[in-house]
Specification:
Layout lengths: L3 E4 L2 E4 L5 H12 L3 H8 L3 H8 L7 H11 L3 H26 L4 H11 L1
Antiparallel strand pairs: 1-2
Helix pairs in contact: 2-3, 4-5, 5-6
Protein name: Addiction module HigA family antidote
Pfam family, one: HTH_3
GO molecular function: DNA binding
Length: 115
């Protein structure tokens, strides 16, 4: 069961999945190496490795390339990246708010403003 925490009216995963992890799973399923996929995409192997290892975001350009090679809609890759970015940024802000000594009402107001 995926661990979650409640933020205002949204339920967000506590450990969001980076789209690079999903890409790695897709590569395994298709029996593609990083070298093979980087060649097909026309990108360097280090760049692809950074995405897979969650050190780089999936850009619009990369999403379009993935769509053309893997036939997974670019919008899917971009939505995965957007969701990952949203949750991780929200978690960072939540941790900062928890350190501040504010009233519960003020914290709630700030969280709602961030949503």
């Amino acid at each position: 069961m995926e661990k979650t925490f409640k933020i205002t009216e949204n339920i967000l995963p506590a450990n969001p999945t980076h789209p690079g992890m999903i890409l790695q799973d897709e590569m395994k399923e298709r029996q593609l190496t990083q070298k093979q996929l980087s060649d097909l995409l026309g990108v360097s192997q280090p760049l692809l490795s950074e995405i897979i290892n969650q050190k780089r975001r999936i850009s619009i350009e990369m999403a379009l390339k993935l769509e053309s090679i893997l036939e997974t809609p670019a919008e899917t890759w971009l939505n995965l990246q957007k969701r990952y970015d949203y949750v991780t940024t929200y978690q960072r802000n939540l941790k900062l708010l928890e350190k501040l000594q504010l009233s519960q009402q003020r914290k709630k107001s700030l969280l709602e403003a961030l949503a």
